[in-house]
Amino acid sequence: MIKILKGNFVFTKEMNRFEVYENGYVVVENGKIKLLTKELPEIYQDTAVEDMGDQLIIPGFVDLHVHAPQWLNTGIGYSKELLPWLNDYTFPLESEFDSVEFAKEHYENFIQDLWEAGTTRACVFATRHKDATSLLIKLLKESGLGAYVGKVNMDRNSSPRLQETTEQSIQETIELLEEDPTLYEAFAKDNTTEAPLVQYILTPRFVPSTTAALMKALGEIAVKYNLPIQSHLSENRSEVAWVKELHPDIDSFAEVYEHFGLIQPGRTIMAHCVYNTDSEIELLRKNQVYVAHCPQSNFNLASGIMPLRKYLNLNVPVGLGSDVGGGHVLDMSKHIVDCITASKMYFVDHPDYAPISVSEAFYLATKGGGSFFGKVGSFEEGYDFDALVINDSSLKMNGTPTLVERLEKFIYNGSSHNIAKRFVRGTEIKR
Ligand code: GUN
Ligand code: FE
After folding, report:
1. Which residues form the Amidohydrolase-related domain (predicted)?
2. Domains of the chain and CATH, by start
3. Which is the closest atom of ligand 1 to the Cα of 206?
4. What is the distance in A from the centroid of ligand 2 to the CA of 321?
5. Ligand 2 (ion): which residues have CB within 5 A?
6. What are all long-range contacts of 253-257, with beta carbons under 8 Å and residues at least 24 apart?
7. Whose C-alpha lies nearest to ligand 1, atom 3?
8. Which of these, 44, 262, 316, 395, could form a disulfide with 311 (CB 3.0-4.6 Å)?
9. Which ligand is located closest to the Cα atom of residue 82?
10. Ligand 1 in contact with 239 (CB < 6 A)?
């Protein structure tokens, strides 16, 4: 199946500059980009062209770290830091997901809002509840969006209602996988079969929530099913100190994950990474662990400013995460803004680390995080055609702005109201 779209394409093949195709054409075959060109070749002259006029066409946004249940809690409780916020706000809310009816209403709403925000791919934490997670997976499959989703594993230091036993955590994780092998088997077989859009990701909450026995078992499950892994690392100073108390014999927070087999090279995401030591950063680099940078959440919970430029200089893979409910909005455009702002504030006291440019932050929210999903987040040949059509006519500007300036305006001042169409792997997703 061939589809051709005409419009103003803006994307980042490389971090430090935008690629622009004004009045260009994209030829999409079976969901993949075959060609992006300024002149449409003769062979396509009989194929219908969907003309997007003067609108911008950009890659769909990738949210590398989001908690679906926490969308109900955004905007409240931010006068607390991470650990009291988890106990007082997050754990009570997540406890409600033992009711599938509660989960259904909420997860339908979450997916609607994720779609509206222009996120086309996301790495999603559910809760520790098997049935509600299974429902979230089903709803995401029906949505047409792309996602890695995991049931949260947490068998220590939680509330009585939310905590699970070690056995239950292992058992229910295996059941979710065995009941739906499409969630992992494309990767388990070979790495060439195209994986369905919704896939499973192992989701140990963070070291303080998981016993050594559970972490060890999850490391074995990761190997057996060839699964990716997501968790949290070095977000907050009290959290880092607590991990040291819990595992005095292991040198660092990152090494606790490594020790238990929870660092799968190239297929692991660690959210936050604000306080990693140089040797932890080297461990991440060596294993090509993805860092999900969540600046808005780091502001809200007064966690700190992650030294993003340091990670980029060292070639650690990075994407952006909303970390909703630590972050308060789903729109990745606003996380791009917060990423830039955070880097500027960091620069003031660390002049060797230059601020992040708009193209760099845009790259992180598209191709940077997208690469965790494969060829996603750019308009190069062979990439999945994940795209947003942006109607920015309501965003008034002086003079004749360039296409890049129009994109900057959308990022800073636009909203989901400016998103006219969303495509995932070549299919327009309507709701
Ligand atoms: N660390 C462990 N759990 C969480 C969570 O739900 N949100 C954030 N921001 N950090 C965490
Ligand atoms: Fe998080």
Report:
1. 57-427
2. 2-59+378-428 (2.30.40.10), 61-373 (3.20.20.140)
3. 2
4. 8
5. 271, 323
6. 253/207, 253/280, 254/280, 254/283, 254/284, 255/280, 255/283, 256/207, 256/215, 257/207, 257/215, 257/231, 257/233
7. 205
8. 316
9. 1
10. no
